[in-house]
Amino acid sequence: MSQAANSIQRVAANRGEFDARLLIDTAKGPRRLADVIEPWQERDEAALEPSIQAVIGNRREGVRMRAYLERARGHDKTGFCARTAIRALAGRKAPGSAVWVASDRDQAALGREAINRLLTFNEVLRKFIDCQKDKVTFKNGSQLDIISSDAGSAYGRLDDLIVVDEITNWKDNAQPLWEAMISTAPKRNALVLVISNAGYQDGWQWKIREAARTSPEWLFSRLEGPVASWITPAQLDEQRRFLATGHAP
Fold this sequence. Notes:
Elements: H1 3-12, H2 15-21, E1 23-24, E2 31-32, H3 33-36, H4 39-56, E3 66-70, H5 77-90, E4 97-102, H6 105-121, H7 123-126, E5 129-131, E6 135-138, E7 143-148, E8 161-165, H8 175-184, E9 191-196, H9 204-214, E10 219-222, H10 233-242
Parallel strand pairs: 3-9, 3-10, 4-7, 4-8, 8-9
Antiparallel strand pairs: 1-2, 5-6, 6-7
Helix pairs in contact: 4-5, 5-6
């Protein structure tokens, strides 16, 4: 890799330095992540860090390579996935492979948009990463494929990172895709990162959630309701009044 690429790899491999340099989109314009990160975001980042380091290539014994993060609507789920995937793949010295499975094509498009926003605000990443319709390529040879849960079978993949986005919104017939993803993970000791809202208790997704919550092999993190500072009390009240469920997410 070039000197610039080596510098990006070094920064991506260091969470503190990455957060201190990364510009993200906020209501007040681009801000450095380290300046605006909230305690609950910092907590999840820190808990997941050993797993990210394993994906980067700094493998350690006893690291949990399964994580389930439960967050309410509007709580940085897609943005977190975008930052995590960029860090994990850009931080690698050797080429890596990852897949981001969204609930549907519209959600997959949101994932691409989240990555593109990061590239827009961070020129150094824009020179290192190319975000296309269904894949993101890195100059270190890594690649992230972005697919939706209504895509074909994923058996046979060899990934270092598997991002499962909004699994509670996956269709009833998408369970075989989940089974394909989780069954391929051991081939490369991949990190499986599931991030979603709470969902409902009457579907196959709830069984996945409960299995993750009760397993010592999984990192399980749940936010107790809306906690993000950018969601105002007035907005929460609006959601309570207009959402079909009758309560805020």
